[in-house]
Amino acid sequence: MHTAVNLWPLLGIAVVVAGFLLRAHPVLVVVAACGVTGAAAAMAPLQILETLGSAFVKTRNLPLILLLPLAAIGLLERFGLKEYAQTRIARVRSATAGRLLTVYLLARETAAAFGLTSLGGHPNMVRPLVAPMAEAAAEAAAQQRGGTLDEAQRLRIRAMSAATDNVGLFFGEDIFVAFGAIVLMQTILRAEGIEVDPLHMALWGIPTAITAFVVHAWNLRRLDARLRREVAR
Question: Which of 7, 13, 110, 139 is surrounded by the most beta carbons within 10 Å?
Answer without folding.
Answer: 139
